[in-house]
Amino acid sequence: MAKGLPKRSEDYSAWYNELVKKADLAENSAVRGCMVIKPYGFAIWEKMQQTLDKMFKDTGHSNAYFPLFIPKSYLSKEADHVEGFAKECAVVTHYRLKNAEDGSGVVVDPDAKLEEELIVRPTSETVIWSTYKNWIQSHRDLPLLINQWANVVRWEMRTRLFLRTAEFLWQEGHTAHATRGEAIRETETMLDVYATFAEEFMGVPVVRGIKTENERFAGAEETYCIEALMQDGKALQAGTSHFLGQNFAKAFDVKYADQNNELQHVWGTSWGVSTRLMGALIMAHSDDEGLVLPPQLAPIQVVIVPIYKGEEQLNMIAEKVSVIRKELMKKGISVKFDDRDTLRPGFKFADWELKGVPVRIAMGARDLENNTVEIARRDTKEKATYPLDNVSETVEQLLKDIQENIFNKALTYRDEHITKVDSYEEFKQVLDTKGGFVSAHWDGSGETEERIKDETKATIRCIPLNNEQEEGTCIVTGKPSKQRVLFAKAY
Amino acid sequence: MAKGLPKRSEDYSAWYNELVKKADLAENSAVRGCMVIKPYGFAIWEKMQQTLDKMFKDTGHSNAYFPLFIPKSYLSKEADHVEGFAKECAVVTHYRLKNAEDGSGVVVDPDAKLEEELIVRPTSETVIWSTYKNWIQSHRDLPLLINQWANVVRWEMRTRLFLRTAEFLWQEGHTAHATRGEAIRETETMLDVYATFAEEFMGVPVVRGIKTENERFAGAEETYCIEALMQDGKALQAGTSHFLGQNFAKAFDVKYADQNNELQHVWGTSWGVSTRLMGALIMAHSDDEGLVLPPQLAPIQVVIVPIYKGEEQLNMIAEKVSVIRKELMKKGISVKFDDRDTLRPGFKFADWELKGVPVRIAMGARDLENNTVEIARRDTKEKATYPLDNVSETVEQLLKDIQENIFNKALTYRDEHITKVDSYEEFKQVLDTKGGFVSAHWDGSGETEERIKDETKATIRCIPLNNEQEEGTCIVTGKPSKQRVLFAKAY
Ligand SMILES: [Zn+2]
Ligand SMILES: [Zn+2]
Hints:
The structure is a homodimer. By secondary structure, chain A is of the alpha+beta class.
């Protein structure tokens, strides 16, 4: 229950952790850094999956499945890639246990040592490109547009539910193309898919941009990203789409015969979003009473709570509710009738608020008399009495309004938290007080970027796409700059 | 292409392996025993998943997600369970790689050794029951009905695509109940779900039964199973549903306060089907020309092949095809128009036969004149000319007929291959010549079962549910027996 949920203004971080647990979204497991995604949390993730999966298929992609394990040697084939991932790999070294001689349990059987160690995939470029080598011979085999839904493991030292876990769930698209231009278009198309999903379904406005060289994916020529802003003023990278150039094609020798029958290396992309989106969804909208879910992703869109004395009244209410339910379901709206008889209405109200159900309908004795219901919306907490006659139309419209309002609220907050600064002093001050994105001139060097990160913990979140070109000078070195970039402290 | 597909009668095993590869279903990866599921194969698996997932939800289950890794010590908590799984575990011992000092690549960093080794889940009872301990306090928390879709790893020495792979995809249901009776009912309900899925969607008739003690799941009190028969006379276990009694509840100390506020251990079940079903689907129906897919699970139900000379004719055909397509899609039928211009119709026909598309529509110059199409069914290879007017009704009916025919054909074969025998001689002879299920009396002892297995490679597939009770004597020991059981060589 909401009792005990810390206030955002007092301890945002504790508020998040408690909310994730109390709303039954996820919890830590006995294995360090690995989470259990609970049924209610998983139902939200399933909605995300279904929506994204359809968007991927509508843009021509097919799903497939590649192995969990990667031979250690594969990781080294692309020089940047191994640097990026070797330090956080779960390594399988043996394939059998045996009984301990002292009877204390089971131990690793030293005779069952693998000749070559296997890495639990941190991402699948290497194993997928080693497969593509056999799938691609001719230009007729291109483009190859494949996605996989999978679990991946990166051995993080400091973990937080959804935001940073050793194992997480994600999708990873891996495509191969005949030309550089086509691969870049694919990279941009998928960034657009992610941005559309974030804004129209999650209700989270995002900045589309590209990463600096320092922040680029290990093995990519260019990393595109969408960046969202959380209520505490920290940014969150919500999805990335990588133009891989010919790096993996060269590392795994993937070539196609072009129209003139000449062999060419193919061009690649990869792109992914993960259960991290759950963290973004939770942090972007929720309040001190609990989750606020956008109707598009809410597993339960409407909850109906009866307020009654005695079984007879409950039966009368239940009869009317069953009509409402049918009408709502006919419109594709998901409904739960909470007729648990051991709990009081007030408790139920708080419980469904905590769980973020967008619309709550209450029906009591007076409503029975007047043929009305009370409808409350989760986002604004407004409530009003409506005639029973066209409840389903009222609710349908309300769900649309809520979806829009949630987005607009987040958009206003985000737009108010992009601050232009022209000195390093101002930069630090904004970061420390107001937070959010800080838009500043930067000299384009990795050293300056590194220095700012060391001194302020802020990183360059992205160079926005279609960025305004503007002459200026770097806030740190005073060197000339042609455009502002977005800095922020980030998750 | 079908060219080079071995005949079933000559080498069934080679036929299967080649079919899986040539029909683009799956292939071996560079990692021993791990497969790559290719887009066409994965599309079939997705159809299976969607269908089963709906059936699970309709029976009250929710999805969740539990960690990939299991602490080594967890595995030992249930005595039978560890015996069953310790010998085939992938073991994670380290969490970091580093550059080799000789510059030869990356090596395991000895400083990054885990305090306790982690097992890649071979099945998740232990990690799930350790979680349920915190989720279950009161009878109001029961029943707990959870499923997860996941990858699991069992280090098999001899592997075959889909049938036996080190990593495979599956779903595992894990439920907890207040009473023994309710848990048994759940076990049986899920067995029913699996049987219904196998018969109505896969078109594969199954025997519902229970396993002998020798063949029981490690940690179960009773294992229920569905057993299917392949075209080579070998059986295949297509799904299992386990009544766990209180074994895991006791191992992980999971108790609930009953209505009288007394603490009781809960009762458990677990149940699963895996990508092994893909193997069953392929082997049950396919022929020497390739896959035969039941319409209910075919990713493409209808393929339309134009037979034309010149672009003008193609355009005229394409115009009519677009009308047919729309009508079929309105009926929820999936259609592909194969207008690839570099391939001849005969090649396309063979290609779609190989891929098992249930219905093929061809349209040529004469069809244009006569307002007709040629429709061919994949299962019987019958074809005929039909008027264009009500093609969608014709196809709709045909898909139903094919689904039914595939099942009936498999059922007839299966029923003809259940042979009653009353002596060990006859038993061996039937196994060696006719194959299939052999129905025989057995004295009920594990030793006799073991001896038969050693001498004939046949195992007891199951004791059928609602088995006819019949006095007899064990074919090996002559000891008294009250019922026949089903033996077979199996995958
Ligand atoms: Zn090369
Ligand atoms: Zn106990």
